[in-house]
Amino acid sequence: MKRKVKFYNNIKSCIEFILSFLLLILVIPIIMLACIAIVIEIRANPFYTQERVGLNGRIFKIYKLRSMYIDAEKDGHKWASENDDRITKVGGIIRNTRIDELPQLVNILKRDMSFIGPRPERPEFVKEFLKDIPDFNDRLVVKPGITGWAQVNGGYSLTPKEKLVLDKYYIENEGVKLDLLILLKTIIVVFTGDGAR
Fold it and tell me: How many domains are contained in the chain?
C-alpha cells in the first residue's frame, strides 16, 4: 500500500508542477486585477508572505494576496473569524472567491505545497494546538495543500481537533478517487463561497 501511495504521489507531483505552471499563466490577469483593486483600496503591497509548517515540519513561506489591513495583527496573531473587521472590502471578495489563494500556485511550483492536502498552519498556531492535541503534527506526513478534505467539509468553522480527524482521514485514504472528490467539492465551494472568512 505504501509503495502505491508513493508512486501516486510522485505522479501527482509531476502533474501538479505542469498544471500549476499552466494555471499560473491563465490566472495572471485575475491576480493583476485583484492587485490593482487592493492597492487602490489600502495603498499597500498586494502580495504578502507568511510562514507555514509544511511536510515533515519544514517551515516555508506561503504566498497570498493581501485581504486584511496592514495592522491586522497589531494585537497578536489570531484566526480569521466570521465578519472579521480586519478584512478589507476587496479582501472580502477575494476571500469568498478564493482569489487570494491563487499565488500559492507558486508554492506548488516550488514543491512546498500540493493542490490537495492538509491546509498548512502557522508555526505559532501549531505550537498552541500541540498543547491540547499532542498528535496534531501527524498531519505533516504529506505535503500541505491549497485545498483539502477538511476545507471542503467545514473549513474555518472546524476546530483544530476536527480538522485533524479529517486530515487523518485524507492521509489514510489518499488516492485518485478522493482527490477528484475534493477537487469537485472545492469547485462547488468556490462558486458558493461556502466556508469563507
Answer: 1
